[in-house]
Amino acid sequence: MDFLKTLNINAHNKGVSTGLQWLKTKGEKLSSFSPVDGTLIGTVAAADRAAYDAVVEKAQSAFAEWRTWPAPKRGEIVRQIGMELRQYKTALGTLVSYEMGKSLQEGLGEVQEMIDICDFAVGLSRQLHGLTMHSERPGHRMYEQYHPLGIVGIISAFNFPVAVWSWNSMLAWVCGDVTIWKPSEKTPLCGVACQNIIQSVFKRNNVPEGVCGLISGGRNVGEWMSADTRVPLVSATGSTRMGKAVAATVGERLGRSLLELGGNNAIIISAEADINIAITAAVFGAVGTAGQRCTTTRRLIIHEKIYNKFKEHLINAYSQLKIGNPLNEKNHVGPLIDTDAVKNYVDAIEKCKAEGGNFIVEGGVLKGKNYQSGCYVKPCVAEAKNSFEIVQHETFAPILYIMKYKTMDEAIALQNGVPQGLSSSIITNNLREAEQFLSAAGSDCGIANVNIGTSGAEIGGAFGGEKETGGGRESGSDAWKVYMRRQTNTINYTDKLPLAQGIKFDL
């Protein structure tokens, strides 16, 4: 496959890197099988403890120099990375699609996100601003500034195998931090490919070795990172269960954690909704990436006046979905990541039926020569209650639950009535409904949209959610501040020493 050669991916890859060189390791081999056709793409050597420590030590050494580079100079490195990603967009996007299973368009879109965050970070490198405050003491000046933290540990998930790493890394680098990255063990080759791309830029610019570390491996690597006092910030993306474990371990040592965890996202379909917009938003939100986005639409809360009509439109739209090889751009839905995900999908359908759910679009596992990996399933739709246990949990699969509402207060209560709080949406042409949804008494999610779906966040806004989604914020706005430490400075430029609060201390 040409895209593998372009990215310097082979049958046997090293999975531990200091950013400028690949390290030997005695760790286990991670095998990457494509969910598209079941083919073994390649293996990656995972980190052992010695290799992990070597990367961290090199990162510590690099930080001592990297933090002294002017921020715009660090931004120039990120600018060049963005240019490099433009050259490799097709190859890397194809690898994302083939190793993870999302459609080629989504794979290319993920690499575009990387390019966009590079552009954002370049501008940010000249805007790492603090504030100036008036001192209560005469002849004093008071201000605050931000300094880099040190090593940022990044634990990313399989569903966005490159974009989320770039959200963290590009901001961390312009802030003066160094990074170590544990990619998902389900998509390790995407991590190797990114490291190959980054290395060429770093070598050309004499970037200190250790600014960008890669540590492939399983759960044990994440546990080492979470417990490591040398890593002041751990940014973890994944399940709520994983996030709770990371938060507990990092919190015990009083470190910082940035958590992007599960979602259970809903769209409220108003009686005054534009039906065409609502159908497109709902279907793409529910079946995009085969339901394996944290922002996937899992619930539709539909006004009772249009419920039956909307249900007919939904059934018709689902009947037109094409399921198959995601590299074929005519297909809408690719495979789930692996057969474990398929089992979770099947179990969720059975649990929904057992609780009284009525499937208006039936699910099932697809078989045959075009589905030989065993990872292809049918997107399905069930009438369900918000109170069902299975509805309260996130299933990483294309299962959509629909329910009725009468009043906007009821709809918002249903929307908020789950443990997760990532993304939400309302489709309405009624300004009052839209404003109520966006008010303090409206959606309790970190993202609340009007007349668009729950998926497809832009990098300019801070991304993240509340409640069991973890409370973290990445990407745009002022999310950069999490990668830095705040310092308040007061300067006395007189020959006296007045004390604050009028305290007298005479010697």
TrEMBL record:
It is an enzyme of class 1 (oxidoreductase). Pfam families: Aldedh. Its EC number is 1.2.1.3. The active site is at 260. Residues 22-488 form the Aldehyde dehydrogenase domain. It comes from the Bacteria. InterPro entries: Ald_DH/histidinol_DH, Ald_DH_C, Ald_DH_CS_GLU, Ald_DH_N, Aldehyde_DH_dom, ALDH7A1-like. Keywords: NAD, Oxidoreductase. SUPFAM superfamilies: ALDH-like (SSF53720). Homotetramer. Belongs to the aldehyde dehydrogenase family. This is aldehyde dehydrogenase (NAD(+)).
